[in-house]
Known about the structure:
This protein has two domains: 2-83, no CATH class; 99-388, Glycosidases (TIM Barrel), CATH 3.20.20. It is built from 13 helices and nine strands. The chain has helices at residues 2-21, 27-32, 37-42, 60-67, 70-79, 111-118, 148-164, 186-206, 231-249, 287-308, 328-333, 342-356, 378-388, and strands at residues 99-104, 125-134, 140-141, 168-175, 211-213, 255-259, 275-279, 312-318, 362-366. Strands 1-2-4-5-6-7-8-9 form an eight-stranded parallel β-barrel, surrounded by five helices. Strand 5 (211-213), helix 9 and strand 6 form a beta-alpha-beta unit. The longest helix has 22 residues, at 287-308. It is globular, with a radius of gyration of 26 Å.
Amino acid sequence: MRKIVIGIIIVLIVVASVTLLYKPYHPVRESFKSPPLHEERQNPEYTGCPVENIQDIDSCASYCVEHIGWDRCKEWCMENPGKCRVDMVEPPEGEPKYWKIYSVNFWEDDYIDDIKEISKMNGNMMMIFFSASPLPDGSLDVYRHESKEIMELTFAKGIATAHENGLHVIFDLEVGGPEALPAENRDAFLENYKEFITDWAKFCEKYKVYAFNLNSELDNEFFIPENCEGECKNKEVGRLAQELLKEVRKHYRGKVGVGVLYTWSGDYNLTGYDFFTTNLPCGDGDVEGCVDFYGEAISGANALKKKYNVPKFVIGEVDIFSENDATPEGMEAVQGFTIVSEQEEVEFYNNFFEKYADRVDGITITYSDPLGVKTGPARDVVSEWFKNL
Length: 389
């Protein structure tokens, strides 16, 4: 009898153990046919989300963010943009009074980590910098390396991450490049450019981007007719500024801005804009000269701001080319310019903020590679100045 009782107890123990160890069938996990999470982390060959029979998961992108991480899923989503979606995240509440902006390179593999990092560096805005190049026939070279769908997905994920981490977003467009633009194709270029900014203004409205800069260099050679100098240039830039502002306002309800280069000599009609910028990195290796260079630009900008009643002027791409830029990519970007030491870079930023922080309404600091303050002692200097503004 004792043996029978002992046998029954052993059977009950085994049954209880099996019950406790049993994991119920998970239809979503099974339909994805994905490895268990611990295998995902251990297996370097795992590069993205499975694609079959997505059921109650909103998108592969959402699944990746929750269970695996965007960096691991990005490759799959880039190859399948139609099957991925990044949900819109509401921006932070309130208006940033003083714009403390970091510019992030969205084509770095760790750009999501960069966005999270700058949120700890006392900034309140993140800049997306997006450049297109005009071609001789008047068309725009925009999507040669990445499709529009992939760019939208990449930017949307960055915007959502910025909003989640308490940062507003400014979207900054620029036209530049080595291609010459024949005079007879200028009108075609301008029409293509209007279409380009319209597309991205709609995108920024959809994802609740705080500010949209329709071009950071509206007075560069691509927008000005040949041999148009002085008053001719002033009138043409002013005319274009008003025409493009009217177009963007049709599609976007946030803050609209424009950028110009020659603030010390230009007299452009910027009436109606919420802000304007000038983006001027300095590469002559002279700390004192670079600081003075920014001062001249700021003085001219403040005269424009007052004359045309623009609420804000933001100085952009504040950077001096330093040893911190000496990655292979950085060295290519600063080829032909003079490189300063880390100590000289620190001196530059301290002098810049001390002289000019209270003469502008915002500052954009380049953060990410190949240029910027991502590494080195200047990073902490900039963060401390932003903290006190």
